Amino acid sequence: MTIGESTQSHEPRAEGPWPQAAATPEEFAELLPRTRRALLRRLAVGQAEGRAPSMTGAVVRGGRTVWTAGRGSVEGEVVDGDVQYRIGSLTKTFVAVLVMRLRDEGLLGLEDPVGRHLDGTPVPDATVAQLLAHSSGLAAEARGPWWERTAGALRPEPADLFGERPQRHAAGRRHHYSNPGYALLGALVERLRGGTPWDEVLRNEVLEPLGMRRTTLRPEQPYARGWAVHPWADAVLPEPAEDTGLMGPAGQLWSTLDDLCRWAAFLLRGDERVLEASSLAEMRTPAVPPEGNGGDAGYGLGMQLLRHEGQPLAGHVGSMPGFLAALWTDPAEDVAGIVLANCTSGPAVAALAADLTAIVSEHEPRIPEPWHPLPGPLDPELLALTGPWYWGANPHVLRLRAGRELELTPLSGTGRLSRFRAETDGTWTGLDGYYAGETLRVVREEDGSVSHLDLGTFVFTRGPYAPSEPVPGGVDPEGWRV
């Protein structure tokens, strides 16, 4: 049969601590029987209708694995969470985290042209961010025969990855998925880590701290064999599992359900030993518009974005000959769904993993964390800034959050909501929405009292168009009238 369904909420294994969760005990409780059955049925239908030799799935909630199950078998044996599957382009999320670590250390900027750090690239003026978001214009695939089914030795040098026309679009103009672009990012990691291969950097800086000791560049027993399933008959054909060499950063990794549960928990919450939650949130921010008719999809920095049943998800799907993988996180619900299968095509694993998150969110919505007062001491000047402010006649409220963060919310039902991060110079920087990256500053009178707020040249005053307020263009001297 199958990996049996695990109905226990459990702690991760001892290798590497997981992020501490400030959540109520109810969030860590075992899933309800009705939820478990719905999850198991969804996975079973996906395996049967998709005709996958084996399929495993898991749900992570509150930083912990709360459900795992599987159908089918590997080499006639029961599958468990320690069996490796090839995860294809899920590899790209790992490479993107390595690049973001370099950015956070100050070794590169996301807007740096890649040619500043790598010699001989076919797109020297494309930025690091454009490579991460697949908007560099590079070709979708490597030169030569189908790179996923041929040995990397066929392309021993970086120049061997690109054909006569390596760039198909102008950089920054559109989203065009590029596997060779991630080969360049792997080379970038190697270059800025003093020549250490990207997979060794990954092992030392990411996998070991997170306890992911069964995520490897090449398969290690026990692992699943990859199969192609005949489209018109219930027959299978073995697929090759080549070492793709320089193309490895695009899709080489093998991993297990247990390890990917650790990865999902990290992507949701961050880990200061690897990457802060704020940088992961940046990776989830749309960097390019969706391509074609994909109005419910997009791409961030190494993260695919999806809107599933109205809920925004972030993660990635992967495929290599003989394997399919999908991992989606729902940060609002603090839940993730993971699916692995050992077949080239058939099961819709992307939709299946998204459904796992939706089932849990529908059956057992997240319990909010307890409210607590802000940690002291409280700055009276910041407290005095809170309350109503007006952009013209449009009322807003400014609230004080943890870490001196401010939140500006429209009260009229229309307007622009944004959060603002405190800076050392006494200003704030917008984190999201229309004001992302814009500067909020408090303008004071000569006596030090607050005059108004300046937000990217927009003036917010304490009264709606009061004659005494410094409204650009002035206020009619007769004031409001009926």
UniProtKB/TrEMBL annotation:
GO terms for molecular function: hydrolase activity. Residues 46-358 form the Beta-lactamase-related domain. Keywords: Hydrolase. This is Serine hydrolase. The keyword Hydrolase applies. The keyword Glycoprotein does not apply. InterPro entries: AmpC-like, Beta-lactam-related, Beta-lactam/transpept-like, DUF7586. Residues 1-22 are annotated as: Disordered. Residues 379-462 form the DUF7586 domain.
